[in-house]
């Protein structure tokens, strides 16, 4: 069981990590749209490289404390019995709060309003399927990498997967409820209209549930509890 002090440290790490992740996603999207106007492919390339790279750096830096940065990953940890329900709830709240901080900071760094409601609608059957696929793949990569016993492989695998998933999924792989909610507050390249969010969240949770079942099937016994492996 996680001690209160340890849970506080983990929550702080999740908040800070998710804030930097969202700042990188949104900030690099803004920079890409300004540096490469009119070239959506190049913008996506710039955005995906920055996101994948920052994930590697953040996971390596914060993994000794906590480095999920994603409510779906945290809920799968709970489903595997690696953390308590209380710990999961606290970490998810920290992740969502961190995402909100990150998007405000990103907007301000580029001299935009701190909050601007996104108007980019992302919907359609293919896009929603892509979100389930992206999330399923991400969770499999996370927990499969943990099974290697080498902590550094998680950062490289996750960063590489997300950079690739920007391209092979039609949704550009949000795959993270905290990041999805935060991106409603920036009407920029990386934004998503609030009306598109409920379906995205539902498909992300579905992808996470399918991944949980596959992790149980493929990796039994389950990985050692996070508290013991960090």
Strand content: under 5%
Number of helices: 9
Classify the oligomer.
Answer: single chain
**CATH fold descriptor:** Glycerol uptake facilitator protein
Mean pLDDT: 94
Taking the alpha carbons of the first and last residues, their distance comes to 14 Å
Keywords: Membrane, Repeat, Transmembrane, Transmembrane helix, Transport
Protein name: Aquaporin Z
Main location: membrane
GO molecular function: water channel activity
Task: Walk me through what this model shows.
Helices cover 70% and strands 0% of the residues. The protein has helices at 4-35, 40-62, 71-79, 85-109, 125-146, 151-168, 177-182, 197-218, 226-229. It is mostly helical. It has nine helices and no strands.
SSE blueprint:
Elements: H1 4-35, H2 40-62, H3 71-79, H4 85-109, H5 125-146, H6 151-168, H7 177-182, H8 197-218, H9 226-229
Helix pairs in contact: 1-2, 1-4, 2-6, 3-4, 3-8, 5-6, 5-8
In a nutshell, what does this entry contain?
The protein is mainly α and 230 residues long. Helices cover 70% and strands 0% of the residues.
Search tags:
230 residues; mainly alpha; 9 helices; globular; disordered C terminus; transmembrane; repeat; transport; Aquaporin Z; water channel activity
């Amino acid at each position: 069981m996680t001690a209160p002090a340890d849970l506080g440290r983990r929550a702080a790490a999740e908040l800070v990590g998710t804030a930097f992740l969202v700042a990188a996603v949104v900030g690099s999207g803004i920079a890409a749209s300004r540096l490469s106007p009119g070239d959506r492919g190049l913008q996506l390339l710039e955005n995906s490289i920055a996101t994948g790279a920052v994930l590697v750096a953040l996971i390596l830096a914060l993994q000794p404390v906590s480095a999920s940065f994603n409510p779906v990953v945290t809920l799968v940890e709970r489903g595997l019995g690696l953390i308590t329900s209380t710990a999961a709830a606290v970490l998810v709240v920290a992740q969502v709060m961190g995402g909100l901080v990150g998007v405000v900071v990103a907007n301000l760094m580029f001299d935009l309003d701190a909050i601007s409601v996104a108007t980019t609608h992302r919907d359609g059957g293919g896009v929603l399927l892509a979100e389930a696929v992206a999330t399923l793949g991400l969770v499999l990569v996370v927990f499969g990498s943990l099974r290697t016993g080498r902590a550094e492989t998680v950062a490289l695998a996750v960063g590489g997967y997300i950079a690739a998933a920007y391209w092979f999924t039609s949704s550009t792989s949000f795959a993270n409820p905290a990041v999805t909610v935060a991106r409603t507050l920036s009407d920029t390249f990386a934004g998503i209209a609030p009306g598109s969010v409920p379906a995205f969240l539902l498909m992300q949770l579905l992808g996470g549930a399918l991944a949980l079942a596959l992790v149980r099937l493929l990796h039994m016994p389950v990985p050692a509890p996070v508290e013991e492996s960090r």
